[in-house]
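anyone else get weird line breaks when pasting these?? whatever heres mine. first is seq + tokens for prot A
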Amino acid sequence: MSDFLSKFDKKNEDSAIKGVSETDKFSNKTRKKMNHRENEEPLETDPFFKKKKRKKYIFRLLITLSLIAVSVLLFFQFAYIRIGNFVDKDISDVRKWATEHNLAIDVTPSYDKAPVNQVLSQQEKAGSRVRKKSMLHVTISQGPNPEEKLDLPDFMKISREEAVKWIEENQAVNLTIVDEYHDEIKEQEPIRIEFTNKEVTKENYLRKDVGRIFFSKGKEVFEKNIDVPDFRGKALSEVETWVKANEIELEVKKEASDTIEEGKIINQSLSSEEKIAKREKFQVTLSLGKGVTVPNFSEVLPDNADSVAEGLSVRKRMQLTRNMPYGQLISQSIPAGTILTSEDEQAVDVVYSAGQPYIRDYRLGEYLEGDLQKLFFEEFRSKGANINYQVRYVNSSEPYGTIVGMSKFNQFLALEDTITFDISLGNKNPGPPDKE
């Protein structure tokens, strides 16, 4: 610096002398006056001239250097930006910062246990400077690997708190805890687990599989704050509309009525002065109209059974018995006193005793061998007796097929028996007529 200043002083001195010389050329008269003045009195030089010139130059130099430094500083200030530490920050914050500082951003996703969209690393080091409009490179978490197989616990044997803890620790983001009311399972206890994909099981579960684990909230209790209308004599449809609107459970009991029209309400479990809670049971009795009372057929003769009750169809049957008298009631399909309604089959099966089986004498009468099948069915088998017959063909002068003999006749039989019939072959000539 000292050498530079010395050269600067010498150069200024030479310039000053040269300036004086050139000035003399402009006017001889002036020069003469100056020479005359020199001859007359000595020239005085300012001893601080050089120092003033030097300070002035230094000042100008410092101003110039300062301007250059400021220019460089402003250039870096506006053209470059200092990079911050973005690790562990959310990518949305990084995008916002990059937009404000005119930087583009290149995002590389990677599976990681860090929260989704959290920055895992950055290519540009924190504290370094990059030119604006350049690219910022970061790697972010896209959550845990959805293809990873997870060993599910038995959710039906753990508490809700344990299930929530396991889901959080294993980042099973597609498993959801659902709480619902249950009338039988206690609060906080597991109810069931459901997977959207029916092929997913506890053994092959992947993190990407969607499922729901249901836990009980206990039995839901509702306040009794719903007014009960008077539905007596009204249609069932009105009751159904009311229970649907108020989420009440309806029970309908049906019975015959001599006074209430069919399809109308006879009575109800709660009166119109009471209140009911949501989901509580409410019962009404619906009229089925006038019913038919089944009579006691033990008090009715078989011949009168068909007409004993108006509107009732009676299917009567006679059955042979071993020791019951004829006409005694054996059974009726519907108990006496039962009221049949429009929803019932208004018919009853009645069985009366036909007494003990009895075999008449069919010899040399109106019956032939061909009549025996129908005769035995109508007289015995259709009435519950297992009585059969067999035939034996004999030589006889009676026409072919005539019954000429019977093993039993004109007597009572057991419920199981067999009768032998002798049937004429018609191969004998009749004998001489009897003499008078």
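and prot B, same format (seq, then tokens)
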Amino acid sequence: MEPTSLVDDIYEAAVIPEKWPAICDRLAASANGFSASVVTMNEQGLFRWISSDCIRSDMERFSESPLRMANIRPARHLERAPFSFLRDTDTMTADEIDADPIYNEFLRPLGLGWTMGDVIQEPSGHLIMFDILRRTDRGPFADADVDRLNALKPDLSRAALLTSRLSFQQARGITQTLSAVGLPAAVLGGSGKVLAANGELEQFAPRISIGARDQLSISQPSANALLQAIVQDLQSGAQPTVQTIPVAGAVESKPLILHIIPVRRDARDIFSRCAAIIVATPVGEVGPPDVRVLCGLFDLTPGEARIAREIAMGESVEKIALKTGLSVHTVRTYLKLIFSKTGTSRQSQLAALLSGLPAGRD
């Protein structure tokens, strides 16, 4: 039986992503393997992973290769034994293993020749996979190796699913927080689906609506085309920048600006579903934005938020320096950090992005 501390650490990793590489090392060791990885994949094939440090650079290369889509083992695993760890020799014939491009082009050149894993499929179709690798010269995984990992299977499954469900709570928490400061908002997942939306955003229907398959759409065709292009970037795994979409006014309705803000995740947080936050602001409702909003929305420090607020008010770098008592060089340094966090590159872009955010009290 595995030490109780390993089970405890598995559940701790459910809420602390930094724990997963160490868990991978211990899983590999418990099965006499070389390395382990945890992989998530959505319906569009977006591939995210975390692994033992010893194979991290190789996994980075694999994750960018078309080979990642050539793996026949997950589908066969779900067909044959969806509730236990299986070896490659359980899901593939010897001839298939000999001819498999993942083995020939990726594993064998690294001296690795045997695999064992488990696959968990959520109701949404999202896959969570555990994969253990072993060096070629050590031969296939033995029954005892499989038994040791199967003893941990219930805990691994519960921890992975708990982490996945917490990601939805994270999405709801984001929209509720933005609602508290008056921001109509929605959170999009990597597949482009709306994970959560607050009541303030829903009040813009039918101009902005959530339709079939939880997809967000805009009634204005040109604006909707821009939105769908951004959604396609999310689906492809591209890292979007902060973008704005103008939405024309309607009868008794003001024009809107949609701000699409990417969620910058820790690379180890593979279970997070939140890919972007969409914030809608009516044109004309402008003013010096609330420092709390700037800090929470863009992860700005209080000092950065104050500089950003001055830029939104139309102040120059020189005037901000004079007003705050900082040097021009220090203000420019702050501004570079603000540009990085907001995905902008010019003061005019930053001012446009911040326009319409709820005003603070002077």
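btw re prot B: The first strand starts at residue 35 and ends at 41. Residues 358-362 have pLDDT under 50 and may be disordered.
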